[in-house]
Structure formats: C-alpha cells, structure tokens
Write a structure and sequence with these properties.
- The protein is an alpha+beta fold.
- A hairpin with a 3-residue loop joins strand 4 and strand 5.
- Helix 6 runs antiparallel to helix 7.
- The longest helix is centred in the last third of the chain and has 19 residues.
C-alpha cells in the first residue's frame, strides 16, 4: 500500500475501519474560543488556518467576512456546536466530489450510542487533544449529521481536560490523526471515558446536570457490556 502525505509532508495514517462493534463516534473539531456557541474570533480563525484546517482554508469559506459583519454564526458546525448539538463528517473539498462539496458519511452509528467531541487548543500539540463534549445520539440525518439530545448530552467544562489519546492510539502506537473528521471506539472504551469523566466531575462542586447525565450514560453502557 502506497503512503500518502498531507500538505505539510506528514504521512497520513489511514482511518482504522475497526470491527462493526466500534459504533461510537469520535469527532475532530476545530478550535473555537467562544465556547463553540458562536463564530470564533479572528485570532482563533487565524490559528485554525495556521493548522491547515481544511474548511477554514477553503476559498469558499466566508468566515472572515462574517467576523467583520459581527455575525453570530458561520457556515460550520463548530460555531453552533453546543447550540444545535449537531456535528457531521464534513464534505469533500477537492476533486470531482469537492466541486459540489458532496457530504461525507459516518458508518455504524445509531441512536442511544455516543459521539465524543475533541479538539486541540492553541499552544498544545496533537498528543494533548481533549474531549469538549459528548453527544447522546438521538438522530442520524442522511448518514452524515449526528444530532445529540440537548437534555442528555454533555458539554464538558473547561475545568476538565481528559485526553483522547489516553484511550485510543493508532495501531503503531502513534498519536497522529491525519485526514478525516471521524474515528470510532467500542463500548468498553466509551464506558472508560464516561467513568473517568465522572471521577473528575465528582471533584467539583455543582454541575448537577452533568453528573446526572453521566450517571445515566454509565448505567446504559454497563448494560450494553454486561448484556
């Protein structure tokens, strides 16, 4: 199999297909310094462009103009991630499919499974990619858009930063995520993340809704595993 390289000359690791029981999703999200509830600042946009984020760098992206106009949302999932509670696999931006921005598909996901949202903050590296939220999947639209239940999904407080690569490395042990916005994990790993997140929340005062939702999800995933 020939090795492919990205724009920076780094080898692109193929996205692992995994067995069919890996039906929990992990999304790679762009950085947003407004809590993923409105369009990011120009500083955050410049950071995403410096990291060669595909849509941020695409000539069809109009974020710069929208920032100038003071618009609240942009044509990206991240600007309203925790408003609409929707995330997708993105679109093709190059080639024949890119000419029409054909949507990419997710596979294997289903209602009552989870979509974990991750990002990398400025000043950190890929190995520091951490969870910013968990969607409790209530609908999958067009095999592309994942809708989280707004009542039972979790927006992880910035006080807690649990790292993605602590749970799922590449087959060669590396912590490199090449092209594509989606990866997959099984129920056992999903449960481990939930349990570790609950431990961190239990150290904090308040956050009653988040703790309650974690208890609900933990109970559900224990049932999945125990049968």
């Amino acid at each position: 199999m020939s090795i492919q390289f990205d724009e920076n000359g780094k080898p692109v690791m193929p996205e692992p297909t995994g067995p069919l029981d890996e039906d929990n999703i992990v999304f790679k999200c762009n950085w947003n310094d407004r809590g993923w509830k409105e369009i990011c600042s120009r500083k955050a946009r410049n950071f995403n462009v410096s990291k060669n984020k595909k849509w941020c760098c695409d000539k069809r992206n109009d974020c710069e103009e929208l920032i100038k106009k003071g618009e609240k949302f942009a044509n990206c999932y991240e600007s309203k991630l925790f408003v609409d509670f929707v995330m997708g696999a993105g679109s093709y931006l190059k080639g024949e499919k890119g000419s029409t921005m054909e949507e990419k598909h997710v596979r294997g996901a289903s209602k009552n499974k989870l979509a974990f949202l991750t990002t990398i903050a400025p000043g950190t590296e890929e190995k520091d990619k951490y969870f910013i939220g968990i969607f409790d999947i209530e609908k999958i639209e067009g095999e592309h858009d994942i809708h989280g239940n707004k009542d039972t999904s979790i927006v992880v407080t910035p006080k807690i930063k649990i790292k993605y690569w602590s749970y799922k490395k590449n087959k060669d042990g590396s912590t490199f995520w090449g092209s594509g916005l989606v990866r997959y994990i099984d129920d056992a790993i999903a449960l481990k993340i939930l349990l570790d997140l609950k431990k961190e929340y239990d150290k904090l005062k308040g956050f009653d809704k988040e703790k309650k939702n974690l208890d609900i999800l933990i109970k559900r995933y224990k049932r999945y595993i125990e049968g």
